[in-house]
Design goal:
Elements: H1 2-25, E1 36-38, E2 43-45, E3 48-50, E4 53-57, H2 67-76, E5 81-85, H3 88-91, H4 106-115, E6 119-123, H5 154-171, E7 182-186, H6 198-211, E8 216-222, E9 235-240, H7 244-254, E10 261-265, H8 282-294, E11 298-305, E12 316-317, E13 321-322, H9 341-351, E14 372-376, E15 379-382, E16 391-393, E17 407-415, E18 421-429, E19 431-436, E20 439-445, E21 452-455, E22 462-470, E23 485-492, E24 495-496, E25 500-505, H10 509-513, E26 518-519, H11 528-534, E27 539-547, E28 553-556, E29 562-567, E30 570-576, E31 583-586, E32 594-602, E33 610-614, E34 637-638, E35 647-650, E36 658-675, E37 686-687, E38 689-693, E39 706-710, E40 734-735, E41 747-765, E42 777-783, E43 787-788
Parallel strand pairs: 4-5, 4-11, 5-6, 6-7, 7-8, 8-9, 9-10, 10-11
Antiparallel strand pairs: 1-2, 2-3, 12-13, 14-33, 15-26, 15-27, 16-25, 17-22, 17-25, 18-21, 18-23, 19-20, 19-22, 23-24, 27-32, 28-31, 28-33, 29-30, 29-32, 34-43, 35-42, 36-41, 36-42, 37-40, 38-41, 39-41
Helix pairs in contact: 5-6, 8-9
Alpha-D-galactopyranose is lined by residues 128-131, 189-190, 239, 264, 270, 729.
Length: 789
């Protein structure tokens, strides 16, 4: 009998202990107080060692109605924490007006996370990056001509401090110190890749403390920039996509104690228009995850679930690689919330490393998916027939000056009769569609930095229209100072054009509500703008689609050119027929049984005005032949034979970034890295990142940089595009061709800096992940005559 009673007590005790574990390790809602601290080696939750298995999910990139589903899916993957950015520009779209409703109600997102047993790591910014428009920085800051973003410029700091005060007001009670799920809060984002001013980080830190944040404040940086801007009073985490040992070595080098955490561990990567779709290397991802699990290192999978960058919020990588709206990121949880093979592999892996009493729930059901049969789109509203009141000015200005942050802007002037002449603008951010009397004559293209074209002869005075489309504000580097629209002077035949009409086209709800649609009969017997629309003129199109039972679907945009699509008033996404994305995710919760309205703005015009819904996304279909820029780069000839290298040397083996000083400062518009051999003896070259240093050893801004010449790029088997070497991200890289062909060494990459620059040295970041291409012997050339156009 006694034995039975003792046995019974033992069971009861085990149950109580496991319930205690369960309660203490999952973020249960309510007054129960938990503590979280940074121990000497571990994170301590309620005084117990706690390994953070975190994954990034952005509330802004998931329909509100689906937040709980995605958070349940994250929990079912085995995560115990989710990490979420706040996007300042989404919350404070107009200066001084904070809007925390709908997709911006991240407080509600945190509450749901807590209810689902997940802790939260909050990343409020003020700068976030994240392939989000401007990295989260509000466009209205750029109304100040010489503002220095992400510095102690008082205009920036005042606005940022006001914003952080507002954030603390909303999230203060959601901190673990107040019974909420928020364990830690990040200050800024990868500041080390931008500057070295520790006082700037210090002021932000203090502003957050003064505002009411009393949990651990931390800072994240990629391993090769972790020293820059480091402060001991901001707990550091390191970001990397591979090779945890190397990443944590860099972390330990600056921060000898404390738990080790990878703040961003990449299972995939984001896509940019015109480049191949990214797929992660799953075996390496799983191996690196397991090594962190084994070594008690914490991590955050960036992205666990990417979702969709709805609306006009997708950013642009530098120098100018606009991001797709799909943010599938080849994440374990797909864009539409489906558990992928990678999800189940991750779940199985985590199941092997659970803490005592910890369990992983089953994945929730996914949302129903539907197909929509093709529907002809017959209503049309040409842009030139739907213009607002004009603003008249002698010299045109950038979009911000007209109090506009997003969308398009039309610049119109009248030019005299005359011979064929060159039209040139100082710059156009981002695409300038040029029309003469309503007929398109060319495109000014920021990707190549070509802002001039030949206007044909005119027998009589003509209307010149430059319709500028602003894609996302660049979200990385000094290039975040990305003012949209036209930069003057605009010259014709060398003479500056003055006397302009400016039409702001913000593509917002108010503009859409004012459009005058007309039914198009395919007899083309309509006035000029409509006929032009039929002939590829810029126009809005509208269709009514009947749906029996709403469900998630992927709008098929393959027969459309370039623009933006809305469904039932929700701005879904940008589209562009060059790919890689060819569909737009339309969440079922934004569709309804019966009539649904689809509106499509097409700037280049449809092949066939038809819309359908598919049951699967198309994320990896490139069509360079459809690009209005016939070549990705102007054709040039390399002139190295007549040039003298400023340096002939050998890099060190391994993945660490290397700072190289030139024997003497060199000046020129072009910088050429010529690879002569690779450490693995193979014919390939790969470069993760190149930064150039000016005469004061300061990093040069990449603004206006383009790739002038590259002898070889792999763009079929993977995205080895040359621009990857100057986009600021080390998780991707330029890689010479290895699929259809394997051209031998030497290999050359020539940067066009846009103007002559004094260069004292450069930073070379080798390919980070295991694999071919790490350069051994090389030469450097600097000069104005390295290529011939
Ligand atoms: C960086 C940023 C993230 C995101 C990733 C790339 O590390 O911190 O916001 O931009 O790169 O997806």
């Amino acid at each position: 009998m006694l034995k039975v009673i003792i046995q019974g007590c033992k069971y009861a005790l085990t149950i109580v202990v496991s319930l205690f574990w369960l309660w203490s390790f999952s973020a249960t809602a309510g007054p129960v107080s938990h503590t979280f601290a940074i121990g000497t080696n571990d994170f301590l939750l309620d005084g117990q060692r706690f390994q953070i298995r975190c994954g990034e999910v952005h509330a802004a990139r998931v329909p509100v109605e689906y937040w709980r589903n995605r958070l349940q899916m994250a929990k079912a993957m085995g995560l115990n924490t989710v990490c979420a950015y706040l996007f300042w520009n989404q919350i404070e779209f107009q200066q001084g007006k904070y809007d925390w409703s709908g997709q911006a109600d991240v407080m509600e997102f945190c509450r749901i996370a807590q209810e689902e047993g997940l802790w939260v790591i909050l990343r409020p910014g003020p700068y976030a990056c994240a392939e989000w428009d401007g990295g989260g920085l509000p466009w209205w800051l750029l109304k100040n001509d010489d503002i220095k973003l992400r510095t102690r410029d008082p205009r920036f700091m005042n606005a940022a401090t006001n914003y952080l005060r507002e954030v603390a007001k909303q999230f203060g009670t959601l901190q673990i110190t107040h019974g909420g799920p928020i364990l830690m809060v990040q200050v800024e984002n990868e500041y080390g890749s931008y500057g070295t001013d520790t006082a700037y980080m210090g002021e932000l830190r203090q502003a957050m403390i003064d505002a009411g944040f009393d949990v651990t404040l931390f800072a994240c940086n990629p391993s090769y920039d972790i020293k820059k801007g480091y402060r001991a009073d901001l707990f550091p985490v390191v970001n990397f996509g591979a090779d945890p040992a190397n990443g944590f070595k860099a972390l330990r080098a600056i921060h000898p104690t404390g738990p080790m955490m990878c703040g961003e561990f990449y299972p995939g990567w984001f896509d940019t228009w015109g480049s191949p779709h990214h797929l992660g290397k799953t075996p390496q991802y799983l191996a690196d995850l397991e090594s962190m699990l084994v070594n008690d290192e914490s991590f955050s999978i960036y992205m666990a679930h990417g979702g969709t960058t709805f609306g006009l919020w997708s950013g642009a990588d530098r120098p100018f690689k606009p991001d797709t709206s799909s943010y599938d990121y080849d994440a374990p949880i797909s864009e539409a919330g489906w558990p992928t093979a990678k999800f189940f592999q991750t779940r199985a892996l985590f199941a092997k490393y659970l803490l005592p009493g910890e369990t992983i729930p089953n994945p929730p059901a996914t949302n129903p998916v539907i197909a929509i049969a093709p529907v002809e789109v017959t209503q049309c509203a040409p842009i030139f027939d739907n213009l607002p009141k004009a603003i008249e000015e002698a010299t045109p200005r950038t979009m911000e000056k007209y109090d506009q942050g997003h969308g398009c802007i039309l610049y119109r002037t009248t030019i005299p009769a005359g011979p064929a002449q060159t039209l040139e603008a100082a710059a156009v951010h981002d695409f300038g569609f040029v029309f003469l009397d309503g007929k398109r004559v060319g495109v000014m293209d920021r990707r190549s930095g070509v802002y001039k074209l030949l206007l044909p002869e005119r027998k009589k005075a003509a209307t010149l229209d430059i319709l500028v489309e602003a894609m996302g504000h660049v979200n990385f580097g000094l290039e975040v100072h990305d003012r949209k629209g036209i930069q003057t002077p605009v010259k014709l035949g060398g003479t500056e054009l003055t006397g302009w009409k400016i039409f702001t086209l913000p593509l917002d709800d108010k503009m859409l509500a004012g459009l005058k649609f007309r039914i198009i009969g395919f007899d083309g017997a309509f006035s000029n703008p409509y006929a032009a629309a039929l002939n590829k003129g810029p126009a809005f199109w509208r269709a009514t689609v009947n749906i029996d039972k709403p469900g998630d679907t992927f709008l098929d945009l393959r027969s459309w050119g370039k623009g933006v699509v809305w469904v039932n008033g929700h701005c879904l996404a940008r589209f562009w027929d060059i790919g890689p994305t060819q569909t737009a995710y339309a969440p079922g919760c934004w569709l309804h049984a019966g009539e649904n309205e689809i509106v499509i703005l097409d700037l280049t015009g449809p092949e066939k005005p038809e819309i359908a819904g598919l049951e699967k996304p198309i994320l990896g279909e490139l069509h360079p032949e459809k690009d209005f820029a016939k070549a990705r780069r102007p054709k040039v000839t390399l002139l190295l034979d007549s040039a003298t290298p400023v340096l002939t040397a050998q890099f060190a083996p391994g993945g660490n970034s290397q700072d190289v000083k030139l024997p003497a400062p060199a000046t020129g518009r072009y910088f050429c890295l010529e690879s002569l051999s690779a450490f693995d003896g193979q014919p390939f070259t790969a470069v993760a990142e190149l930064n150039l240093l000016d005469a004061d050893d300061k990093r040069l801004s990449h603004e206006g940089w383009t790739i002038a010449y590259v002898d070889s790029e792999e763009r079929d088997k993977e995205d080895g595009t040359a621009e990857n070497a100057i986009d600021g991200q080390t998780a991707n890289y330029w890689h010479t061709q290895w699929g259809a062909a394997q051209p031998p060494q030497p290999h050359q990459l020539v940067l066009d800096l846009g103007k002559s620059q004094a260069i004292s040295g450069f930073e070379y970041v080798p390919r980070q992940s295991e694999g071919a291409g790490r350069i051994k012997d090389y030469r450097i050339y600097v000069g104005d005559n390295l290529i011939q156009k």
